[in-house]
Amino acid sequence: MRHLYFPGCTLSTKAKGFAASGEASARALGIDLVELSQWNCCGATFPLAMDNLLALVAPTRILLNAQKEGDHLVALCSICYHVLKRTNRLLREEADKREKINLFIEEEYRGEVRVFHLLGLLRDEIGFETLSQRVQKRFQGLKVAPYYGCLLLRPFQEIGLDDPEEPRILDDFLASLGCEVVEFSHKTECCGSYLTMNSSEVTRELSHAILRSALASGAQAVVTSCPLCQFNLDYRQGEMAAHYPGFAQIPVLYFTQLLGIALGIESDTFGLADHHVDPRPLLREV
User: Fold this and answer.
1) Which of 16, 77, 97, 102 is most buried when burial is the number of CB atoms within 10 A of its CB?
2) 208-252 confidence digits (pLDDT tens)
């Protein structure tokens, strides 16, 4: 299965392990992720001011370049997926804004490209039951908290990947690898997102609430699909340990890292050693 692939900036810099594990896992499952030959940063945020059309130029160029090479585009990063999916919908459904953006870029794009997240492909094209049959190393007994965050699911009318209040896609994915999926109250709460750049205190507090909820529910690890969520939840644990007495640190992994290991792929390039809380002792244990 050939799929045009948008890696995005973070997966090419700070989250190389996310990219390496995702690409290797896809190959093992017969999914050929072909990197878009020309791409730029998606902008990393979808504009809150609806008249800020200039902020949509960057993702529009990505979608336009994708149209020149295929009819759909796959992303791993939740933020990239969110921005591309919402931009595509706007260009498809809002003709006046589409016309202004096309005039600016001096090309014509009408929102024809379909935008997918790898989790969606695993669910809808491979199937989690089939995926379970491909697993070589089953994480039997590993208690994992699936953390969705904000951008993978919302707004539902524009994203449509799963139920934003009671999502299942990441839960079912983890179950297919043999994990014991832990239900916890903060699975769709915000980690602080970009506030980490100018308010580490707020980000620390929000991320701590998420991890505290996961730990209280018995989780041994947290799994996400967002590089910024992974950073906030993982890196801030040093501050949490100093600020919150009795805080127990917990590994925060990308879903593709667990997938690659479960498929029997050598994990040396998966960036596990780069995590603030090293997940390797736990993974060796299970």
Assistant:
1) 77
2) 999 999 999 999 999 999 999 999 999 999 999 999 999 999 999
Residue pair 109/115 in contact by the 8 Å Cβ criterion = no
Number of structural domains in the chain: 2
Rounded Cα gap, residues 10 and 2, in angstroms: 23
Q: How far apart are CA 258 and CA 21, in angstroms?
A: 8
Cβ–Cβ under 8 Å, residues 249 and 241 = yes
Contact (Cβ atoms closer than 8 angstroms) between residue 74 and residue 5 = yes
One-letter amino acid at 70 equals G
Distance CA 275, CA 49 (A): 35
Model-level pTM? 0.97
Count of all residues that appear for the chain in the document: 286
Are residue 92 and residue 222 in the same domain, yes or no? no
Question: Is 144 within a domain?
Answer: yes
Tell me how far CA of residue 8 lies from CA of 41, 226, 263, in angstroms. 6, 12, 25
Look up residue 273 and give its amino acid. Answer: A
The Cα 86–Cα 21 span in angstroms is 26
Domain extent at residue 225: 138-285
Tokens 């039951």 correspond to 129
CA distances from 30 to 27, 114, 253, 277, 285 (A): 5, 20, 23, 32, 29
